[in-house]
Amino acid sequence: MAEKEYTLESVLSRFTDSSVPERGKDEEPIDPPSWRVSGEGSGKTAPENGMARHSMLYIGEGCNRIFLVAGGKVIWTYDTGRGWELDDIWMKKNGNIVFSRMSWAGEVTPDKRLVWRRNCPEGEEYHTIQPIDAERVIMAVNAPKPYCMIVNTGTGRVEYRHDIPYENPGWVHGHFRRFRMTARGTFLVPYLSLNKVAEYDGDFNEIWRYHIDRPWAAVRLRNGNTMMTDEYHALVREAAPDGRTVWEIALSELPPDKRLHDCQSFVRLKNGNTVLCSRGNGGLSPQMAEVTPDKRGGVVPE
Predict the structure, then answer these.
(1) 36 and 168 housed in the same domain
(2) How far apart are CA 254 and CA 241, in angstroms?
(3) Of the candidates 160, 176, 192, which is a domain's last residue?
(4) What's residue 2's pLDDT?
(5) 235 is in which domain, residue-wise?
(6) Number of domains making up the chain
(7) What are the pLDDT digits (tens) for 248-259?
(8) Is residue 73 part of a domain?
(9) Backbone angles phi, psi at 80, to 5 degrees
(10) CA atoms 136, 140, 142, 147: torsion sign
(11) Are the C-beta atoms of 206 and 199 separated by less than 8 Å?
């Protein structure tokens, strides 16, 4: 019998169970919020039911609270403390949530128990994390000599560590954000400050390179193409292995009343639509827009 496909909806009930505390014992107070939450997902710039269109995990650089959204409402939150910054997040098949902060990374259960926490060494930064199986995660570490590592979260042991090639590392904060291991076991590295995306084999021999300005995120799609953000030119591009642009959208192509201020990350949905994500310009602009392959679509409000 085929394994039942995992969906976010299949574990949502664990987050709303009566046993889930309002605040977990490991939660840390966050900075006083200068943002607001629209619990009903309504607004002038929110066609197609706005936030109710998709269930989602949501984080942001300037807000150290994890949000779980379902039915257009925030149904669960987890506060991760003061400082900077939430950058990467995943939900595992068991419902646990894995995330990275600039100063630490961790995993929390739906009932708000912190399963593990790994503090970042002084002078280094954790901006990217990716679960690769039930107990292991891969992380790229911004450091004077940047490196990636595979950590067994059950034992805390580093099972693999390798330097990441970097010309003149300089500004540690500007190294990487969405480093990823691909389904082939290669490493896809967006060099935020070097204006390129590179793919390496397990020994970090370069096997593919693509020039793009300020790539905050790079993801290998199921069709073999690579989708990337160009933060400098405010666009998202899908490129074929031979470098051809297959699809691209600039934020300037969105209608003025639905235009995002910036775009650092995205999600390509199974139906072919793309969700563009923005920091929201301090609440003055929308934070998400879903567009079809022919670039039609609407905006999810803050």
Answers:
(1) yes
(2) 27
(3) 176
(4) 46
(5) 213-302
(6) 2
(7) 999 999 888 888
(8) yes
(9) -115, 15
(10) positive
(11) yes
